[in-house]
Every structure is written in structure tokens, then in C-alpha cells.
Design goal:
globular, binds S-adenosylmethionine, 7-stranded mixed beta sheet, about 250 residues, 8 helices
Length: about 250
């Protein structure tokens, strides 16, 4: 039995409400992205060529383009709806962004003309089966420039099952708690997103023991995923940041 509808990302309503409200409702959204940007500054990479996997409405790409004026970006996503929204939002940077429409499991590498030195992803890879997550990490290692970095900010299990359950409840608590501070113009997006949180709770909390398939939220522990990064060849692998369910794991290609 399938828990989630894989088509849910192919919707204008979903794309637009996610774009408007994710920074408020996903715990640690900006904190994680800003930490990633701090790491890139600290690494003093010459000229950033970023590939963002499952780039959505382009929020992370926009931050990178602003922070690093020499940077260029590959935007990759399989949803026309999210891509169209990103193209509108990133209009002023159009000569610095290349759009790739592909599933993570497709042959997107053939569309990469210049090797990226930073590969990122946020809230996307956990929809893949574990086998496909591992394959994607290998593909990323292969396409990455020497001395380049890979970071995945994503929903992940933690060391203990009870703490994992707590992190699921925290996600719902955090979103519900924003109700009182949501501005008038975001009330519609809030309502739409909370319906999705209701579905998310059904899948991940109420039906926690149902088997998972590609497209569901297939949470895997950050420790196991760090081992997959090591197996793929990454060095300096670490859990670079964590807030309850959201973890940022990463590593360098040396
Ligand atoms: C929850 S959104 C996150 C968007 C963005 N990374 C952010 O954090 O704001 C997940 C994105 O990943 C994309 N996505 C999910 N599974 C994918 C797959 N198998 N191949 C390509 N894109 C995928 C969806 O279309 C959607 O744009």
C-alpha cells in the first residue's frame, strides 16, 4: 500500500503555498540554509558552481546567487509547477541559472556542462527509496568537482526511536504554533500547508508502521546516511547541523 501521492509536487497550489510559508513553518528552515552558506564562505571556494537537487521554488539558489555574485547554479527538479515558480522568482538572475527537468533517478548528469563544486539538496531526497538515495549520493560524488562539497538538508531519523518520534511531533507542534503569528496575507497559504501537515501526520505518525515506498517520506537515520556518503567516497563527512527532524549531513570530494 502506498502512503503518499507522488503527484503532490505537481500542483501550482502546492508550489505557491510551500514557497510562501516554508520559512515560517518548517522548523529550522533558514537556520539550516544560512549555516550552509556560512560553511561555503568559510571554505573560500573560488567561484561557486552550485547544483541544487529538488530546488523547488529556488529559495536556496536565490540566497547563493545573492551572497556569491560570481556564482552560477544548476536548478534540478521534476515538477513543472515548482520550476515555473522558480523561473519567475529568479528572473533577474536568468543568465546565471540553468534549469534541468529530471527525476533524481533519471540521466540528469548528461545535462551538466560544467562540473559543480557544490551540490545541495533540501527536503527532497527523503522521498527516494534507500537504494535510490545511495545511488544518488554516488552520482553526486562522481559529478562533483575535486575539493567540492555535498550537503543534504533533510528529514532524517536519529539515534533513538523515541527521540525520532519526538522530532515528528515537534514538526507538527511548530507548525501549529505559528498560527498566532501568521500575517493576514499568509493565512490562505497557512491553511493550505496545514492540510498537508495533516496528511504528513497521517503518513508518518498515525501510520508509522506501514511499509514505505518511493515517494513516501522514507526517513533514514543520519548515521546510516553518513556511512553511505563514506561509501560513495566523501571525506570529512559529518552531521553539520541538526534541529529535531531536520539534519544537514555533508562531505567533501578530495
Ligand atoms: C518539499 S519541496 C523542497 C523544495 C526546496 N528544496 C526547499 O527546501 O524549499 C521538495 C522538492 O523536491 C522535488 N522532488 C521530490 N522528489 C523528486 C525527485 N524524485 N526528482 C526530482 N525532484 C524531486 C519536488 O518537486 C519539490 O520541488
Amino acid at each position: 500500500m502506498k502512503q503518499a501521492n507522488k503527484d503532490r509536487f505537481h500542483s501550482n497550489t502546492m508550489a505557491s503555498s510551500y514557497d510562501k510559508i516554508c520559512q515560517l513553518l518548517v522548523p529550522g528552515y533558514d537556520f539550516m540554509q544560512n549555516t550552509l552558506i556560512d560553511i561555503l564562505k568559510y571554505e573560500k571556494l573560488e567561484k561557486i558552481i552550485l547544483l541544487d537537487l529538488g530546488a523547488g521554488s529556488g529559495i536556496l539558489i536565490e540566497k547563493v546567487l545573492k551572497e556569491f555574485p560570481d556564482s552560477t547554479c544548476y536548478y534540478l527538479d521534476y515538477s513543472d509547477e515548482f520550476t515555473n515558480l522558480a523561473k519567475m522568482k529568479l528572473k533577474e538572475y536568468e543568465n546565471r541559472v540553468t534549469y534541468i527537468k529530471s527525476d533524481f533517478c533519471g540521466d540528469w548528469e548528461s545535462q551538466i556542462k560544467e562540473k559543480p563544486n557544490v551540490i545541495t539538496s533540501m527536503s527532497a531526497i527523503h522521498h527516494l527509496s534507500n537504494k535510490n538515495k545511495k545511488n544518488l549520493y554516488k552520482k553526486c560524488y562522481n559529478i562533483l568537482e575535486e575539493n567540492g562539497w555535498f550537503f543534504n538538508i533533510d528529514e532524517m531519523k536519529t539515534i533513538n526511536e523515541d527521540a525520532y518520534l519526538r522530532s515528528l511531533y515537534h514538526r507538527i507542534y511548530h507548525a501549529e504554533n505559528q498560527k498566532n503569528i501568521v500575517s493576514e496575507d499568509l493565512k490562505g497559504a497557512y491553511k493550505g500547508y496545514m492540510e498537508k501537515i495533516g496528511d504528513w501526520k497521517k503518513r508518518n505518525v498515525d501510520n508509522i508502521n506501514l511499509p514505505k515506498q518511493e515517494g513516501d517520506d522514507i526517513h533514514e537515520s543520519f548515521l546510516i546516511q553518513l556511512n553511505w556518503l563514506n561509501d560513495a567516497g566523501f571525506k570529512e563527512t559529518d552531521l553539520y547541523c541538526k534541529l529535531f527532524l531536520l539534519c544537514m549531513i555533508g562531505g567533501k570530494k578530495i
